[in-house]
Amino acid sequence: MLGLIRNSLFGSVETWPWQVLSTGSKEDLSYEERACEGGKFATVEVTEKPVDEALREAMPKVMKYVGGSNDRGIGMGMTVPISFAVFPTDDGSLQKRLKVWFRIPNQFQSDPPAPSDEAVRIEEREGITVYSTQFSGYAKEADYVAHAGQLRAALEGRVTCQGDVYFCAGYDPPMKPYGRRNEVWLLRA
Q1: Cα 143 from chain centroid (whole Å)
Q2: Percent of the chain residues past pLDDT 70, beyond the cut
Q3: Which of 97, 100, 127, 139 could be bridged to 38 by S-S, CB 3.0 to 4.6 A?
């Protein structure tokens, strides 16, 4: 736990590498098309719980891994954003399932430490192309659903996105009260 606290207060913060391919807007909504680099990710999947509750279970596991709960006992530093995949139903609400994806910092990409918690898995993922919109505040499930719907509506007739999954992303630690950055990412089909 000391490693987690030390890492969050004094550790480095890396940004997940991506390239902005284009920008757009419709009415009051601005968005970017991004090519996000692939790599190795620490993941935790939670099922049978609403998104907000599942996040409260999954995030501490990922943060402990990053903070030193791994076979080397080392804090790795942070990569932002931390993203999580959600799975919409036909009516736009979300299934009781999510998967947190934390991109392992570049220094550890070739040989990441093994997690101590068996719920944390290391997975390799190819790069993805997403359409992203940004919003502020302490985001909850309803906020992500609303912004995903707005982004989907803004892109309608312009591009085709996957309908069975999208990503929610956060850049800030929970103790940051103002200027918070959240995003919704729709995957290009």
Answers
A1: 15
A2: 94
A3: 127
